[in-house]
Amino acid sequence: MFLLILSRIDLRSTLETMRTVRLQFLVPALALYPCLILLKSRRWRILLQQQHIRYGLVPAFAVYNSALAIGYVTPGRLGEFVKALYLRTDAGVTLGQALSSVLLDRVLDLYLLLATAATGAVLFTVPQHLLAISLAVLAVAALGPLLILVPTVNQRLIALVSKFAFQLAGARYQQDLQQSLNGFQQGMEQLLTVRLLVAVIWTVVAYVVFFLQCYLIALALGMPLSFPYSAYTISLASLLALLPVSISGLGVRDATFVALLHPIGITPEMAVSYSLLFLLVFNVFGGAIGALAWYAKPLR
């Protein structure tokens, strides 16, 4: 898809646009990246505290960066779940309990993006075919995590998984599997309380920083893009980039930008430039920080 988009645009114009990037906006966007991850690391620690798991901010920051680096090079950013393996090793908890906090951490991100994208779809004039696609994506993306957050459905899903997992696992693994499933259920029960609202507030703060970075990237390119429309565009693109069909959202994110920015008069060349600069700030620059974090704290 990415190659198809490149074949349909004026590459020379795209490169010229990239050469005119204004550093007075790009440098602050880069500088805010560690702040963004620090906020998300703090939120993860809040979830861990609800489970009575003690984990320092420095190791949480290092682990979060490492997991993001792996997520950037895996389909659908599934590599971010490596945080659970770190937590099992460092805190001595079961894999299931570790997965519960990591999963809910991702779910909070997902629903913030869903809320922003849904609000944008209502507020802005979007072509009918794009609106239909947007609403379909939002509905599908909201369904799965919602099932996890409903306690009764949660318990039935775990029971269903247990039934099939025990049939597939050998006798030597069934005890470990049962401990992990029990740990996951216990972990979710500890997390799904009123105290979760604190983590929700930290999520909102973190995404204000994230949307500000994206707006600064638009300003660096001189794009006539408002902050609210930028947040809507990046939210829908980020949701689609979570589909496990590409690495780092290549192709999917570019196509989304081209489709959503064209109705407001932004050329495909400019949209692709925006996508490439987004890739540079988050995946390349952020991935480099994550690689250093992985080197400093490798997973045994």
Q: Would you give an account of this structure?
A:
The chain is an all-alpha fold and about 300 residues long. It has one domain. Helices cover about 80% and strands about 0% of the residues. The protein is built from 13 helices and no strands. It has helices at about 1-10, 10-20, 25-50, 55-70, 80-90, 95-125, 130-150, 150-170, 170-190, 195-220, 225-240, 250-260, 270-295. The longest helix is centred in the middle third of the chain and has 29 residues, at about 95-125. The radius of gyration is 20 Å and the shape is globular. About 40% of the residues are buried. The mean pLDDT is about 85.
Topology:
Blueprint lengths: L1 H7 L2 H9 L3 H28 L6 H16 L9 H10 L3 H29 L4 H22 L1 H18 L2 H21 L4 H25 L6 H15 L10 H10 L6 H29 L4
Helix pairs in contact: 2-13, 3-4, 3-6, 3-10, 3-13, 4-13, 5-6, 6-7, 6-9, 6-11, 8-9, 10-11, 11-12, 12-13
